[in-house]
Amino acid sequence: MQSPPLEDAPRPSETLRAFNRRRLLTALRQGGAASRAQLAQLTGLSAVTVSALTTELMREGLLAATPGTTRRGAGRPPALLSLAAPAGVTVGVAFGHNQVQVAIGDLSGRVLAHQRVLLDVASSATRALDTAAGLVGTALTEAGTPRSAVVGVGMGVPAPLDRQVGTIGSNNILPGWVALRPAVELGSRIGLPVALDNDANLGALAERAHQTDRRVDDLIYLKISTGIGSGLILGGQLHRGSTGSSGEIGHIQIRSDGVVCRCGSRGCLETLVSTTSIVALLQPAHEQGLTIGDVVTLVAADDPGATRVVAEAGRMIGRVVADLCNHLNPAAVVVGGELSEAGTPLIAGIRGAIDQFAQPVVARAVTVRAAALGDRAEVLGALLLAADSARPL
Questions:
Q1: From the CA atom positions of the chain, what is the Rg in Å?
Q2: CB of 143 closer than 8 Å to CB of 89
Q3: Residue 68 is part of a domain; what is its CATH number?
Q4: Transmembrane region positions (predicted)?
Q5: DSSP per position, 111-165
Q6: Do residues 276 and 337 make contact, with C-beta atoms less than 8 angstroms apart?
Q7: Which of 83, 98, 124 is the C-terminal boundary of a domain?
Q8: β-strand 161-162 against 150-157: which pairing, if any?
């Protein structure tokens, strides 16, 4: 059983006991069933503390015990503890530029319900938040779960956040959301506290947690959509930066004489390779109005123009990511967002640029792949965020 990465200090206003309970629950959620002795090793807590807290958690219905199968010495094999799925449910809410998703999950990570609505999220924060609140109710009904069973709500937005005050900054793709406190707004609508994070961060969490081959503790998740962002997992921990704005690679300047970006600079990566930019570049060659879905279809049909533009976008993104790889030396680069559906030309372009511009030892160490979870990565990451902030029933 691999040791999952755990936070090493309580959060603000969190008691030591609550912190230790959360460490135990996180260890079981990320690493699977474990004995009390294994939990002590994984969390660094004393055997006495683990015994007291696991007994408390079992009494509350958050943990279940099953007989162990491995005998050590002459005694009975130790019982294995795991999360008890019926203990409660989590809610994940993910806002994209043009859609809202809501998922209901149990504490073992199983998705019980999923709702999606296409919506112009940027144009009206009120409408988007009202829609999300309605979807939460619909999804709970679909899952057959009362609102009283919700132990945590996680929420993702496609914008940089000021994590200290929970507001969205200026110059983002959600202009109507500036200075808004999305978690507070949604929480007031659904009557539950809401944990908030950037959508690329949540995508990174989900892709790492749902790996089936091996656990990667250093990972870059790319969200290539209307905006360009990245979520960074470093040493098994999500890296947000001092103000919550880490990973905003879309605003790295590529051309000093380029068009003005929404951030106020010129020639940013986002102005050249976002889905909006790619559609605008290809539109003159087509009579009908194009969408990014049409571009993906054209690439699948081996359209030479669309394939070339997407491959060049991949190389341009890869050039920036190569520098990031030199700094961080990740084991994986995972490509998500709407443009990731274009597949091989995009991935090959990113891979080729990393091979060309990153240090050879760094390039050899990193794999580049499309996101396994597709466009559900962010909402599944929101479920993980909700589980991490879960309260006992």
A1: 22
A2: yes
A3: 1.10.10.10
A4: none
A5: EEEEEEEE--GGG-HHHHHHHHHHHHHHHHHHHT--GGGEEEEEEEESS-EETTT
A6: no
A7: 83
A8: unpaired
Q: Which residues of the chain have pLDDT under 70?
A: 1-14, 30, 68-76, 85-87, 170-172, 212-215, 391-393
Query: How far is Cα of residue 388 from the mean position of the Cα atoms in its chain?
Result: 13
Structure tokens at 98: 């043009």
Model confidence pLDDT, tens digit, residues 60-102: 777 888 776 555 555 567 789 987 755 689 999 999 888 999 9
Instruction: Give residues with Cβ within 8 angstroms of 387, minimum separation 6.
Output: 25, 29, 90, 105, 107, 109, 152, 154
In a domain? residue 218: yes
Q: Which amino acid is at 30?
A: Q
| Number of H-type helices and E-type strands within the chain | 13, 14
Each residue's pLDDT tens digit, 301-353 = 999 999 999 999 999 999 999 999 999 999 999 999 999 999 999 999 999 99
The domain total for the chain is: 3
Tokens of 201: 């961060």
pLDDT value, residue 335? 96
> Encoding tokens for residue 210?
């749902």
User: What kind and span of H or E run contains 368?
Assistant: strand 367-370
Boundary (domain end) residue, out of 27, 53, 83: 83
Q: What is the pLDDT of residue 101?
A: 96
Residues forming beta bridges with residue 369, ordered by sequence position:
334
Contact 365, 328 (CB under 8 A): no
Structure tokens at 104: 């209901």
